[in-house]
Amino acid sequence: MENSSKQWRFEGNKRLNSASAISVRGVLDLVIGNLSTDDPRPTIPLGNGDPSQFACFRTSTTAEEAIVDAVHSAKYNGYAPTVGVLSARRAIANYLNRDLPYKLSADDIYVTSGCLQAIEVALAAINRPGANILLPRPGFTFYESRAAYEHLQVRHFDLLPDRGWEVDVDAIEDLADDNTVAIVIINPGNPCGSVYSYDHLKMVAETARKLGILVIADEVYGHLTFGSTPFVPMGIFGSIVPVLSLGSISKRWVVPGWRLGWLVTSDPNGILQKSGIVESITGFLNISTDPATFIQGAIPQILENTKDDFFSKVIVTLKEAADKCFDGIREVPCLTCPKKPEGSMFVMVKLNVSLLEDISDDLDFCMKLAKEESVIIVPAALEDGLRRIKAFHQRHVRKQ
C-alpha cells in the first residue's frame, strides 16, 4: 500500500500554464470548449489562419505531386541536417531572391517546422538576461506566449487604426532602452489585415538602426495581398538594419499542416554573424526538432513549379471573402472595422460592449458566440490572458 505521507518532489511547470493562457491555441481550445453539443449546425471556424478547412481553398496539384515524388524517390527517409536539406535551402533562397536587391545563399536559410518554430528560434537566439523585445499591439499572441516562456520581457507599441494599422514609430524610441534587442513587424498584418508601404517599412528599419536593434519580420502571409499596397519584404532593408525574416508555405500554398517554414538572416553586412546570433540560431536547432525530411525534399519543386494562376485564384477568393466580411461587419451596430483588410486572412474589429446585454468583454463575447451561434472567433489581445480566463471561469461558476 502506498505511503500517504510520501512527499513527491515534482510538480507541473507553471511557466507553461501562464504561457499557454495567452496563446492562440490555448484561447481557441477555451472557446471551442464552449460550443453547444446539442447544436446541429456546423461550426464556422474563423479563429485561426487555416484556409484548408474550407472547400474553396486547396493547394496546387504541383505541391501534391512534389510530395509524392519526394516520397517515391526514397531519398528523404532519413534525418535531415540541423539547418535543413541543402536543396530546400537553396530553393527557398532563390524564391526569396525574386524580391530582394541582393542575393541570399543557402547559408542564410534555416528550415523550420512551420513559422511557429521560426518564432521560437528567433526569440531564443536573441534572448539574454534582462533583455526586452518590442511587440505590436494588436499582434499575434504567440510572441507573448513564447516570450513569457523564455523570460524575455515584452514592451508593446501600438498600431494606429486611423492610419491603416501602421506602427506608431514615434513611440518606439520612448519604449526602447539599453536592454531592448529587437522589434517584431508582422506584414501582411495578423490580426489587422494591414499591408505596409515601402516608405513605412523603411522608416521602421531606420528607427531600429538608430536604436541598435534588429528587426524580426514575420512574413508568413507574404504576397497574400489584395488591396492597393503591394507586399514589400522587410529584407529589402537588410543593408540598413539586420533582419530575421520568418515565413512558410503554410498560407500561400494553403498547407498549414505540412509544417514547413524558414528563418532567414537578411543581413548583407554580416552583423548577425559577428554578434553571435547566427551561432545561437544553429545552437537552438541542434536541440530542437526538424520538419519532415520528405517535405523538405519536395520544396524545390513546390517553389519553382507552382503556376501564377494558382496564386491568383487564392487572392481573388481572399478578396471576395474580405469584401463580404467588411460589408457584413458594417451592418452590425456593436461592431466597427477601422480599416478594410488588404492582406493576410484576418480583420480587426472593435466591439462596443455597451450596446450588448450581459457581455463583459471580448473574451466573454467570443465564448457566448460559440455557444449560441457555433461561430469561432478569438479576442484580439490576451496579454493579461491568464487573469481574464480565470475571471471568466469565476463568473461562469457563480452563474451556475
Summarize the structure.
The chain has 14 helices and twelve strands.
Please characterize this protein's 3D structure.
The protein is α/β, with parallel strands linked by helices and 400 residues long. It has two domains: 11-44 and 350-399, no CATH class; 59-303, Aspartate Aminotransferase, domain 2 (3-Layer(aba) Sandwich), CATH 3.40.640. 40% of the residues lie in helices and 13% in strands. It has helices at 14-21, 24-32, 61-73, 86-97, 114-126, 142-150, 169-175, 198-211, 271-274, 277-286, 293-305, 308-329, 362-373, 385-399; strands spanning 44-45, 109-112, 132-137, 153-160, 166-167, 180-186, 214-218, 243-248, 261-266, 335-336, 350-351, 375-376. The strands form three sheets. An eight-stranded mixed sheet has the order 2-9-8-7-6-3-4-5, sandwiched between helices. Strands 1-12 form a two-stranded parallel sheet. Helix 3 packs across helix 11 (293-305) and helix 5 (114-126) packs across helix 6. The longest helix is centred in the last third of the chain and has 22 residues, at 308-329. The two termini are 39 Å apart. The mean pLDDT is 92.
The CATH homologous superfamily of the largest domain is called Type I PLP-dependent aspartate aminotransferase-like (Major domain)
If strands are numbered along the chain, what order do they take across the biggest sheet? 2-9-8-7-6-3-4-5
Strand content: 5-15%
Most strands sheet: 8 strands, mixed
Count of helix runs: 14
Q: Please, how many domains?
A: 2
> Could you estimate the helical fraction of the residues in percent?
40-55%
Q: Give the C-alpha Rg.
A: 22 Å
How far is the N terminus from the C terminus? 39 Å
E-strand count? 12
CATH class of the largest domain: Alpha Beta
**Rough shape?**
globular
Q: What is the level-2 CATH architecture name of the largest domain?
A: 3-Layer(aba) Sandwich
Could you say which structural class the secondary elements and strand pairing correspond to?
A: alpha/beta
Pfam families: Aminotran_1_2
Family: Belongs to the class-I pyridoxal-phosphate-dependent aminotransferase family.
GO molecular function: L-tyrosine-2-oxoglutarate transaminase activity; pyridoxal phosphate binding
InterPro entries: Aminotransferase_I/II_large, NHTrfase_class1_PyrdxlP-BS, PyrdxlP-dep_Trfase, PyrdxlP-dep_Trfase_major, PyrdxlP-dep_Trfase_small, TyrNic_aminoTrfase
